[in-house]
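Justification of resources, computational component.

The compute hours requested in this renewal are based largely on the per-chain cost of generating structure records like the one below. Each record pairs the submitted sequence with a full structure-token output. That output is archived, and it is also reused by downstream analysis tasks.
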Amino acid sequence: MSKKLRSLIILLIGAGLAYWFVSQLEWQIVSAHLRHMRIWPLVVAALLINLTTVARSLRTRRSHSVGVLIPDLNNPLFPPIVRGIEDRLAAAGYVALIGNTDGDAERERTLFEQMRARHVDGLVLATVHLGDPLLAESARADLPVVLMNRLAHDYSLPSVSVDNERGIRMAVAHLASLGHTRIAHIAGPQEVSTGLARYRGFIAAMEAHGLAADPELIVTAKSFSIDEGLRCAQLLLTRDGGCTAVAAGNDMLAIGCYAALDQAGLSCPEDLSVIGFNDMPFIDRLRPPLTTIRFPHYQVGTEAAQLLGVSVATVKRRLYRSLQLLTEKLADLRPGIGES
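The structure output for this chain reads:
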């Protein structure tokens, strides 16, 4: 073994690498290549830089990474939100670790524990349900946690969300202004704050306009998905009395309405007007384009990362506040062709 190779091994061991790891490397081959290329001093320097970074993380107990749990990456709502998170974190020298739960509680629990085991400096949760055991655990956790697109009034966790009740009131007001009186609602899951808030907003808006919120015209989806929108819309089309418009809990449910109309040989807005919520990317590509409530996707992400950054810096004096981003400028209606 050459003196250079021996010095390299001693240096690596001295820097803290375990001997069992070093012994598994094919040092003879590596040494030959390094001698031939005459770059082994650069390799050592690179290794020392990496080891210094790891040592600093161990000493400060900071990994400069943030865990982000998303309920459904197939939902076009979330990619621009995640982009906002990543951009804001990158500017502060952090990296986002993304976990997709697919709306599964067990998977959410597993990802939550895995993120903590990797010593993330904070968590952004877009997955929690009302009464979710993770809420209590998050509130007790010795790391900053920010809820995104979710609220939990029973826990002192900072959150970033739009004003869901106001948004759905705008949707109902729009339909009422077009002369609709038999307005149906496909509500999102009621164990999720967004679904519950939009349902409450729908009831309040109907009452404010002197319209009856017929229980027969309110169907609750099991998830914010196209399949559930299809199922719920099919149920509404069979209800006695019928409806002339549907205020969907989000754009995915509204797309399901379009599918149900197509299967029934009906069309929007001639047979049924539909309005969504979230203004998802590419939603204007539908025919006809969907009328929807605008949602500041990217800003929700950047605000969540910003709020988490503040919490990371002040972990001993946790911030308990909720940002309401829905303003006249950010959350107006984006009408589709024909005011569908």
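The first strand starts at residue 65 and ends at 70. The longest helix spans residues 40-60.
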